[in-house]
From TrEMBL:
Name of the molecule in the record: UPF0237 protein H9965_00400
Protein's organism: Candidatus Streptococcus faecavium
Similarity section: Belongs to the UPF0237 family.
InterPro entries: ACT-like_dom_sf, ACT_dom, UPF0237/GcvR_regulator, UPF0237_ACT
Domain ACT residues, every copy: 4-77
Quaternary structure (record): Homodimer.
CDD domains attached to this UniProt entry: ACT_1ZPV (cd04872)
Listed Pfam families: ACT_6
């Protein structure tokens, strides 16, 4: 399973560390990661994978709730859906 995780919010210390820890806690591996700060806004995109099949509904709920606790928006999409959306 491969997926794309995006994170957007006001920049503050520890976002990458916190999101990376949550990714590991949920049994996902970070294959590639990119982050930048534009003015005062933090953006991050990570490609994650797992050898096991994952429940995207559960993962989405976990990341949304965790994002709220960090005051950022975290979204996860299947790589297949992400590819289909950008190949129209």
């Amino acid at each position: 399973m491969k997926a794309i995780i995006t994170v957007v919010g006001k920049d503050k210390k520890g976002i990458v560390a916190a999101v990376s820890a949550k990714i590991a806690e949920l049994g996902l591996n970070i294959d590639d990661i990119s982050q930048t700060v534009l003015d005062e806004f933090f953006t991050m995109m990570a490609i994650v994978s797992s050898d096991e099949q994952q429940d995207f509904t559960q993962l989405r709920a976990e990341f949304e709730a965790y994002g709220e606790s960090l005051n950022v928006k975290i979204n996860i999409q299947s790589e297949a859906i992400f590819d289909a959306m950008h190949n129209i």
